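Run log, item B.
One chain of 162 residues. Sequence copied directly from the ordering sheet:
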Amino acid sequence: MHLTEIISKLENAEKLLSEFRGGYSGEFLSAEQFHLAFAENLQLLKVGRLETLNEFYFWFLPTCHWDDFTNGDGLEMGNEIFSPLSEYRKKNICIDLSRLHSIDEFHKTFMVQLSFPDFYGMNWHAFRDSITGLTEMPDTLTLTGYDKFNTLFRRDGKFSKK
């Protein structure tokens, strides 16, 4: 499925989500708050910010935010969206380094986004081992925000660039 088809499905999901009120799921204190974040990420995706696909992927995981707020009303739609998101994500992952505020957050983000093994050691040697053989890498891994990351973590930024 092409990205334009995923966006079209997400637009339909955004319309359905706008009908829900209240509730609670993870960091979202209401369906309205989730809808606002959903709509903002959809607009970013439409202008080429592919890293927002990561958010959508996690929101549409079975029994996550989408299911919590839409209950059975959005189950079929959620499944129709999650499958192509999952396939697209296997091939294309985009991580915005400018959103990371610590090296620990860097390691946690990469562990989740690239499905590092549970025994991942959260250090640069384990990182290298994971990306060079322990993990199946996507066809395309895009890292944005490197300049900000490098400014905040100059020593670590130089190591990670290798």
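Observations after the first pass:
- The beta strands are 92-96, 140-144.
- DSSP finds nine helices and two strands in the chain.
Flagged for discussion on Thursday.
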